[in-house]
Design a protein that fits this description.
heterodimer, A: 343 residues, alpha+beta, 2 domains, 5-stranded mixed beta sheet, 8 helices, 19 strands, 22% helix, B: 171 residues, 4-stranded antiparallel beta sheet, 4 helices
Chain lengths: 343, 171
């Protein structure tokens, strides 16, 4: 003010009491809102905890759940309806067998394709199908899942490089090895009495074993019959024939194994399959029943069948050869370690 | 002479003080909420790993096999089997898919019912020269069926189920 001395006290620098009251009310309201907002942000603040929880949940689904459907590894993913029917990616052999995985599911799980046309292949689409059918949740989680058998050095991996901060879960598992193997010793044509024989399978006996880890799961796993003791030139004369007995007994209905997979293959020495017959066999020739073949022809856990093998020499001295828990064996389950990372 | 200039400063001071206290409270409460839960999750991961390892060791390789590897280790109870137990448990717990080995340590105790029908225990395995001394360890257990007396143990010679407790910690 003109003529007034500036160092004298006055009331110009002071705020009005109305302003102070208003400002205080505003600040209290502001603090209240901020305190409420921090509650809303708890989910984001605890992201590490959330990641750990999602990683654990993912490992549980993988290790303790067989997936939906439980034999999803037999689906033909090139068919859209089959791909759509796959709801959940679990690797366990059954719901009651935590930690025991099925080798075919492991193979199918780590068979992934990130290209745009992946839906037309046998591979799972990375990352969409893994997020939709394994990780779940609305938040767009990224993941890295790795599995290594302890007797191997190279891991199977699906997922990208992971950042230092991520959710983590590690599980120790055993993987059931598929493919019950029966060795069938044939004999020298000088001593054999038959050119044709049957391999008998009573599925109710095979599935009567309660523990699925040791069960010959012929409907869902491959089955191999190895021919040994071949001492002369012997040819299998035709595609193996499958004879299915009706439930009430009586005459079986027989059919030849189809030309397309899944089917029954004859693999001389365990090598490439015969494409034409007669086909010469050697030691170690496999009658290779592909996984899913018995389901394809409509068999179930109570079926009784015989597989007919015809040769051009009298090399068989038994009829039929029984396929059961005394004559066939299953490889021991293999230990492995599984890691799940989520971020 | 009395005027109102001092009152305004006081109200401002109280408001500012209130603001600082509330702000400090919010900051402190929002930064400390995670710590105990993080520790808890680490414990759960370790516990899961130990349970997995014992369960897989207690899985027989064949249906007709008489015992699981874990049953064998406890039943025969000699230095060879204890060494095999140590190696297999550490292999299962410390292995990772990418080859890096973790560094977990453990000791194992067997609990059983003695001749006087009382609960008793003996140490089955402890790491040589490396005893447990930290707090954040986890304990996992598994029931094991024995057909008879392990030769070097105080367990009675009869079919029975004993409890193996494994204390597991990160070294």
């Amino acid at each position: 003010m003109k003529g007034k001395r500036s160092w004298l006290p006055d009331e110009e620098g002071q705020l009005s009491i109305d302003f102070i009251i208003g400002f205080t009310i505003f600040m209290i309201s502001f603090i209240f809102v901020i305190s409420m907002a921090s509650g809303l942000l708890v989910g984001l603040q605890s992201r590490t905890i959330d990641y750990d929880a999602v990683a654990y949940r993912t490992s549980v689904v993988l290790v303790e759940d067989p997936g939906e459907p439980r034999d999803w590894h037999l689906l033909d993913l090139t068919i859209p309806a089959d791909r759509d029917s796959l709801k959940r990616l679990g690797l366990s052999i059954s719901r009651l067998s935590p930690g025991l995985l099925q080798q075919q599911k492991v193979d199918a799980f780590f068979n992934w394709d990130s290209s745009a046309g992946c839906t037309g292949t046998e591979s799972l689409c990375y990352p969409d199908e893994y997020k939709e059918k394994l990780i779940f949740g609305d938040y767009p989680y990224s993941f890295n899942i790795a599995l290594r058998k302890l007797n191997e050095s190279t891991p199977l991996v699906v997922g990208g490089n992971y950042p230092p901060k991520h959710g983590y879960s590690r599980r120790v598992v055993k993987i059931k090895q598929p493919g019950a193997i029966m060795t069938m010793n044939i004999t020298n044509p000088l001593y054999g009495v038959m050119k044709t024989t049957n391999i008998s399978m009573e599925f109710s006996d095979l599935y009567g074993l309660i523990n699925p880890l040791y069960r010959f799961d012929t409907l869902n796993e491959r089955t191999i019959i190895t021919i040994q003791n071949v001492t002369s030139i012997v040819n299998i004369t035709s595609i193996p024939e499958v004879c299915v007995y009706p439930p009430e007994g009586g005459t079986p209905t027989c059919l030849y194994a189809p030309g397309s997979s899944p089917t029954i293959l004859v693999k001389p020495g365990g090598g490439p399959p015969c494409t034409a017959f007669p086909c010469q066999i050697v030691n170690g020739t496999e009658i290779y029943i592909e996984e899913g073949f018995f389901s394809r022809i409509g068999l179930d856990e109570f079926s009784t069948i015989e597989i007919r093998i015809a040769t051009d020499q009298n090399v068989f001295d038994a009829f039929p050869y029984d396929f059961n828990y005394y004559t066939a064996t299953l490889a021991a389950p293999e230990p492995a370690v599984l890691e799940v990372r989520v971020w | 002479m009395v005027n109102d200039s001092g009152q305004l400063y006081t109200i401002e001071g109280i408001s500012a003080g209130l603001l600082m206290i509330v702000t400090a409270y919010l900051v402190v409460s929002s930064t400390t909420v995670l710590t105990p839960q993080d520790v808890h999750i680490t414990d759960v991961q370790l516990e899961q790993l130990g349970n997995d390892a014992l369960a897989m060791m207690d899985t027989r390789n064949t249906y007709t096999g008489p015992r699981s590897p874990l049953q064998d280790y406890v039943f025969y109870d000699d230095s060879t089997n204890k060494s095999n137990f140590e190696q297999q448990f550490l292999l299962y717990c410390n292995s990772t898919p990418f080859g890096r080995m973790d560094d977990l340590r453990f000791n194992a105790t067997i609990h059983y019912i003695n001749n006087a029908n009382e609960q008793s225990f003996y140490t089955y395995y402890e790491p040589p020269g490396y005893d447990y001394y930290r707090e954040n360890a986890v304990k996992v257990s598994r029931w094991i069926y024995l057909e008879g007396k392990p030769p070097n143990s105080p367990v009675e010679d009869k079919p029975q189920i004993v409890l193996m407790e494994v204390l597991l910690w990160r070294a």
